[in-house]
Amino acid sequence: MGKTIFGSKVVLYFLTLLLVSSLFVSSISAQDGINADPDVDTRVKDTMEVDGKTFRDLNGNGELDPYEDWRLPVEERVEDLVSQMNAEEKAGLMHISSLRDESSTGLTDDHLRYFVVRDDPNAYDLAERGNEFQELAESTRLGIPVVMTANPRDHINFDQVVGHAEASGQWPGELGLAATQDPELVREFAELSAEQWRSSGMHKMYGYMADVLTEPRWTRTDGTFGEDPELIADMMTSIVEGFQGEELSENSVSLTTKHFPGGGPRVDGTDPHHEWGQTNEYPTEGSLYNYHLPPMVAAIEAGTTSIMPYYAKPMNEASALQLPEHLWFSEDQQFEEVAFAYNKSILQDLMQDELGFDGYVNSDSGILDNMPWGVEHLTLEERYAKAIDAGTSIFSDYNDPSGLISALDQGVVSEDDLDPSVTFLLTEMFELGLFENPYVDPELAQEINDDPETQDLADEAHRKSIVLLSNENDDNGQVLPITDNEVEDVKLYVEAFRAGEEESAEASADLAQSIASADPSMEVVDYPEEATHAYIAVMPTINWRQHDNEGDPPSIELKKDSDTEIDAERILDLQEQVETTILGVNMTNPWLINEIEPGADAVLATFNNTPESIVDIIRGKFNPTGELPFTVPADTEAVENNASDVPGYAETFDYAYTDASDNDYELGFGLSYTSASDIKEKIDQFEEEGEFQNFGAARSLQAQLNPVEQFENQGDAEKVVQHLEGFNQKLEQHIEKGRISEKAFESIQASAADLMAKWQ
């Protein structure tokens, strides 16, 4: 993937061009001739001029060493630098430390160079701090630069959790991007975000999650792209190619795709951050290859730099057949029951040899001490040895390399064993351009991060990600959109539901104010007694630190006495009290909505969306196009009976929630508003499929819809209904005279009835 096959004419053109160029240039290096000289910047060490070109004297010896010479191939530069590093420097490079403040402890004393940013400063401050770290790194013996890493930080995030999502940005959540069903939009997002990251001095991301959601209670669901392996694979391709580009460069953000071989199979939703959730079990034959590996394969083929294995260990007794025989750990064991970062048969035999991954392995945080599942009996030094032998190159969130140095002293690891890992890491640094110029301009960083054009695209993504699940009122037909003709009679009450009364009250006030600001034509009232309409925003959250407990797995019920602490009784009271209620459920998990959905007149699924985008949907400024990225379970029984390694759409029983209109809330479900233009598109489609006897029959129906469309835009309900009645008469004539198939007639008639109900 990612390669272009050129036609013979194009090849001939380039060969001719090269031949002509050779008449004028006697000799030219590949890097000199094709690329401009790199931007070289130094703040501590000297620079030197060689052959009229500028280089950094990073080791301060007054000579141009191969690793300092940007004209040389990266491989040659890396080999030279590895030869100059001592064991302590190599060990330090193989560790990543968390950065929550201004502290740079470990950079000089322990030779650390990789840092995970765990706080949320603005772009200017992020850039300034990064420059300070780079200056300190430049002052060390070899001047090896710093790599700043972070989890995804570009998405609106109401609940920041360390180790998962520590920052909040401007885009909808990952599930929201999946709901757009638009990989090209996601690629644009990735390209713009990469520019923001690099301008701020950020170089590498722990992302994105290629995990397939197969257990609705998993507390990390909101970091996934849902349950469809094919869609996730498309998203991963866009993400990797967008952030990294065709190859790593000074404009790239290097990605660590996670979590191999898929973190989705969570028994009861429990997570391997905990001892009681430490297993990956595959009870359904073939589920590993059918569901969990395809997105990983897509990321590998797109060129992801590194991959992060999950904490969990695979289990034999609880798993059906998953691996081909040649990948078995032993004759009688399919898996070695050790965590994936220690699992040589998974990382090397499966990931590298079978799937073709040629990058490096970045461990998850704390595998050496807090989550050493399956290797608890080993000493720290032996754990290092086993992980390195399995293929792990760098250890995350562990800022003390003394254990690895001790492993070297004890002889369980040799310095030669470290060189492949160090080579991977230095290659990444060189390709990112950090050895020439690791510094950034803080003012430019803030300007790029505040670019209004980026915000415009983010706003589009928000609108495209919202899913219309239900839109039907027994008395009035379609509830949404609230048209310009209707809005003057609307009095909207807004209430948000979160865990805790204070949090709910604060969220309610903020949301009401935001909605009022987004559309001043819609009156927002303070009390439900005053309202004709209510927008009820349900914003549940669960996380592995708080809601995943031994013997008490996470719950996705929307009840006051459940993990979500959502006051469902209050929601039901509002639905009784206010004539028309619009329910917006923030679907960071596939919440159980079976108690609160039936009483709503319209239902939206949101994914950490802005209030402005929600208003655009409610007011019809944007016709909803989002589709569910997962299946919503019917009830607690469905959740408890689900196969933990299989997506909701592939369950073998009636798993999905079904509403009163017989809509199944399955993967890919989503409604749109019916309009005259929608019916026109349907007529065109049926005409192309041969469902009309002749061209004239289809055109006559289109003509009947032109005034309907005109009066829709004017908000004239009486005229819309009048012309729709004429359309229906014409449609009846066509079916009576055999000019239209029964299939097309019934479909078009149903759409016309929906439109009529909205305007009557």
From TrEMBL:
- Give GO terms: molecular function aspect only: beta-glucosidase activity
EC class (word): hydrolase
Protein EC:
3.2.1.21
Residue span(s) of domain FIMAH: 677-756
* Domain Glycoside hydrolase family 3 C-terminal per the UniProt entry, residue ranges: 466-673
The signal peptide here is 1-30
What are the protein's UniProt keywords?
A: Glycosidase, Hydrolase, Signal
- Glycoside hydrolase family 3 N-terminal domain boundaries: 128-425
Q: Which InterPro entries match?
A: Cellulose_Degrad_GH3 (IPR051915), FIMAH_dom (IPR054470), GH (IPR017853), Glyco_hydro_3_C (IPR002772), Glyco_hydro_3_C_sf (IPR036881), Glyco_hydro_3_N (IPR001764), Glyco_hydro_3_N_sf (IPR036962), TonB_box_CS (IPR010916)
Annotated catalysed reactions: Hydrolysis of terminal, non-reducing beta-D-glucosyl residues with release of beta-D-glucose
Tree of life domain: Bacteria
The family line of this record is:
Belongs to the glycosyl hydrolase 3 family.
Protein name (Swiss-Prot/TrEMBL): beta-glucosidase
Species in which this protein is naturally found: Virgibacillus natechei
